[in-house]
Model the fold of this input.
Amino acid sequence: MIHIPKPEYSRRRKALMAQMEPNSIAILPAAAVAIRNRDVEHVYRQDSDFQYLSGFPEPQAVLVLMPGRAHGEYILFCRERNAERELWDGLRAGQEGAIRDFGADDAFPITDIDDILPGLIEGRDRVYSAMGSNPEFDRHLMDWINVIRSKAHLGAQPPNEFVALDHLLHDMRLYKSAAEVKVMREAARISAQAHIRAMQASRVGLHEFSLEAELDYEFRKGGAKMPAYGSIVAAGRNSCILHYQQNDAVLKDGDLVLIDAGCEIDCYASDITRTWPVNGKYSPEQKAIYELVLASQEAAFAEIAPNKHWNQAHEATVRVITTGLVKLGLLQGDVDELIASEAYKAFYMHRAGHWLGMDVHDVGEYKVGGEWRVLEVGMALTVEPGIYISPDNQNVAKKWRGIGVRIEDDVVVTKTGCEILTKGVPKTVADIEALMAQARTQAA
Ligand code: GLY
Ligand code: MN
Ligand code: MN
Done:
């Protein structure tokens, strides 16, 4: 299995500590367990920030970084070993495992945190935490601070600055290391295989969830524990619903099916969309829209390179799509004016992409000092233009209505441009039709 190597977690902690102010402390909780119903839990997914700094997969844990602490800078509070609980719920690292396998300098039982953590915070000037994202943890943090304040008359010194950790940490997460790109390439490879399998399985009369099952099969077979987000399998007019999740309609002859799905490997997401005809052959209108979206995506790739800014790729898609919609008669008027008045938004209402990483819509600022961020090597993003012609759009000829097309790939900025991580899935009309025709011949 491809995964983030252990030493990388230690490098990340050191890099973060190097940016923290002198005499400070950073405190981060693991993700809470979420109840699904009664005593059934949702599949556990570690918090991305916590995972980024620790690689520690368990709930009920708190990570503490104390740059310059003589007895060790990295402290992990976690569950104790417990033979009975482990028999029911699975193995725990315990404090020994936290030190031996996860590089902690010191580890304590999570049940002792109220007794120990105030003493660690005491005397530090500044506390870094993910303020606001976990209100229950924020309350705990204030309780610990108040323990120190209550002892001020004994000379205890509470910290007087509280800083959001996000700014430092999320900027680090924005730049992907070679090891991260390797994991993302693997997630992309498996997801590409999943889309190919769904294309091959596509038949009139199946349900959207039948294709979702094909995706899930490849995700799991490839070693992914779960999709990076709820898979969108949207046939016919459902393709015009951007975040469609019902996935229970029948695949009809003459319909397109839009699939937006990607798996997660070692907490790194992939995010792919392809749109193909259920019956294996695009109609002339579907083909025209599809090729326009594809041309806009190609134009966007050309705008992704170091020193180009974040919005250039989006602007490229807007220009190609607006020009194309005018040529097809779906928009009327001057292209520059239609762009200025955002007339294209009736058909293309989202942006061309987002940062991609541990979160599918990953962290990282899109603007710096009010200006679009300039791209740099190692940044990962999606490129996902689309055209959606509402089934209810009375301003266009009937033959166009209900066509929704999105094409989405994942890229990493390189020295000379970008690497497309998801290029394993066919994308041209000819290639998709050939793949689908071949699958039908083999099945016959
Ligand atoms: N799958 C969500 C997105 O494409 O942004
Ligand atoms: Mn997507
Ligand atoms: Mn996306």
Q: What stands out?
A: The two ends are 36 Å apart (CA to CA). The chain has a mean pLDDT of 97. The pocket of manganese (II) ion (ligand 3) is lined by residues 271, 354, 382, 384, 408 (CB under 6 Å).
